[in-house]
Design a protein that fits this description.
Elements (H helix, E strand, L loop, with lengths): L12 E4 L3 H12 L4 E4 L16 E2 L4 H5 L6 H11 L6 H9 L1 H10 L6 E3 L9 E3 L6 H15 L3 E3 L3 E7 L5 E8 L2 E6 L2 E4 L8 H7 L17 H7 L5 E2 L4 E8 L6 E2 L3 H4 L3 E3 L13 H9 L6 E6 H4 L4 H7 L3 E4 L2 H8 L3 H17 L20 E13 L2 E3 L5 E3 L5 E7 L4 E2 L10 H23 L2
Parallel strand pairs: 1-2, 1-10, 2-6, 10-20, 18-21
Antiparallel strand pairs: 3-5, 4-5, 7-8, 8-9, 11-18, 12-13, 12-17, 14-15, 15-17, 16-17, 19-20
Helix pairs in contact: 1-6, 1-15, 3-4, 13-14
Cofactor: FAD
Pfam family, one: FAD_binding_2
GO molecular function: FMN binding; steroid dehydrogenase activity, acting on the CH-CH group of donors
Length: 458
């Protein structure tokens, strides 16, 4: 990354944050002729996006049609609305769904090919697009986008923390103050985008809005401290749905570093069992339902069980195994002994599950997705999981043009926001695969709208 001494005093657009939304917006705005700078407080780019592992949801995509999947935007809309407790911003959701397939195609221009499909909880069709190599989608996306941003000649600085938004006499946002290793600098611009992510690693904000979750561990990177919310709030921006914090059902919290175990593992056929070796929930219900079911066991979490067939279809397992999160068993009895669950019951559970897969009917819990293969190929594997804070649905109130609204519902001139820093799209529960999609869809929209704003303000 270039030294912050090279940071110029003036740009057309400043993008604060280098996760999926910030990188997408920078590329899109650059395509439309803007001189853009990306400022990132962490020492490397990627933000929380780089930790995502399941996929990027889209409906009516060419990738789906290539696999013979006939999907429609209406179903995607309705299922996301239902998953969000009907509390989603309908206009945002409509824009999101209708631009999802376009976002998959736009990424292709930059050699980012999400050509494999899986399914996540709350969805009826395979909508989660991921790399054919099945490597975790987040790092795949952000590492390649960072390369493309540099290739495009866009200035990108790490170790640069924005501490204040600046306004002119007419209250238009026209720059930022940024802390760098070389001291505090003032950078002016015609527009500023907040793409700073959520507040899943901020104990103080979580305590304010959800004191019941303050002792939960988090899957977020340490920089997810709600900086953008504080910057916007200082300008009287409206925050919305701040109490909607998502707990992800499957995280390994046994180590100092919390690891998210991607939903795609269940999408490929893994099941959850309790200490008694029995299933207790439809594993692909919404995250809210599955998290509650695990918590209500009062058994120190639960176990994800899968076989070699499932493992072969979810590459992230190789990483989980490498860092010691995966227990191995030559057969089910061996696995049960290693993880301390009832062996006879585990064998019965797997036999019943395989029968459900063969008939396509899960009589016990009504699961209808992630049933492509029986668990019948040894060796078998288990991962110990607990729910952990994963995502913050609430945030800055924006409109479909990604403009930031103040507490009276008026647009704050020159200020835009996209990605997890914004609120409203997901309602009270985010569907797995929708956050990556949000960063690209609304990152692109932010880039487009910033270019439009700059052109109109000349």
């Amino acid at each position: 990354m270039p030294n912050t001494k090279e940071l110029k005093n003036k740009y057309d657009a400043i993008v604060v944050g280098s996760g999926g939304a910030g990188l997408t917006a920078a590329l899109q705005a650059h395509e439309l002729g803007l001189n853009v700078v990306v400022l990132e407080k962490n020492e490397k780019t990627g933000g929380n996006t780089s930790r995502a592992s399941s996929g990027m949801n889209a409906s009516e995509s060419w990738v789906q049609l290539d696999e013979g999947i006939i999907d429609n935007n209406r179903d995607f809309y309705e299922e996301t609305l239902k998953g969000g407790g009907l509390l989603n911003d309908r206009a945002m959701l409509k824009y999101f769904v209708n631009h999802s397939a376009l976002a998959i195609s736009w990424l292709m221009k930059y050699g980012i090919r999400l050509t494999d499909l899986t399914i996540t909880g709350g969805m009826s069709k395979k909508r989660a697009h991921r790399p054919a190599s099945m490597e975790p989608v987040g790092f795949y996306l952000t590492s390649r986008m960072t390369t493309q941003v540099k290739k495009a000649g866009i200035d990108i600085f790490t170790g640069a923390k924005v501490t204040k938004l600046l306004q002119d006499a007419k209250k238009r946002v026209n720059g930022v103050e940024v802390e760098t290793p070389d001291g505090i600098k003032t950078v002016k611009a015609k527009v500023v985008l907040l793409a700073t992510g959520g507040f899943g690693a901020s104990k103080d904000i979580i305590k304010k809005y959800r004191p019941d979750l303050v002792d939960y561990k988090t899957t977020n990177q340490p920089g997810a401290t709600g900086d953008g919310l504080k910057l916007a709030e200082a300008l009287d921006a409206q925050l919305m749905q701040m109490n909607f914090i998502q707990v992800h059902p499957t995280a390994d919290t046994d180590n100092p570093h919390v690891y998210l175990i991607g939903e795609g593992l269940r999408g490929e056929g893994a099941i959850l069992v309790n200490k008694n070796g029995q299933r207790f929930v439809n594993e692909l219900s919404t995250r809210k339902i599955v998290s509650s079911a695990i918590t209500n066991l009062h058994e120190d979490g639960a176990y994800l069980i899968f076989d070699s067939g499932v493992r072969a279809h979810f590459a992230a397992v190789e990483f989980y195994d490498q860092i010691g999160l995966v227990e191995h068993g030559t057969d089910l009895a061996d696995l049960a002994k290693k993880i301390g669950v009832n062996g006879a019951n585990l064998e019965k559970t797997i036999a019943a599950w395989n029968k459900s897969v063969a008939t396509g009917k899960d009589k016990e819990f009504g699961r209808t997705t992630g049933m492509d293969r029986e668990l019948d190929r040894g060796p078998y594997f288990a991962i110990h999981v607990h729910p952990a804070i994963h995502y913050t649905m609430g945030g800055i109130h924006i409109n479909t043009e990604t403009q930031v609204l103040d507490t009276n519902g008026n647009v704050i001139d020159g200020l835009f926001a996209a990605g997890e820093v914004s609120g409203g799209l997901h309602g009270n529960n985010r569907i797995g695969g929708n956050s990556i999609a949000e960063t690209v869809i609304f990152g692109r929209q932010a880039g487009i709208q910033m270019a439009k704003y700059v052109r109109e303000s000349k």
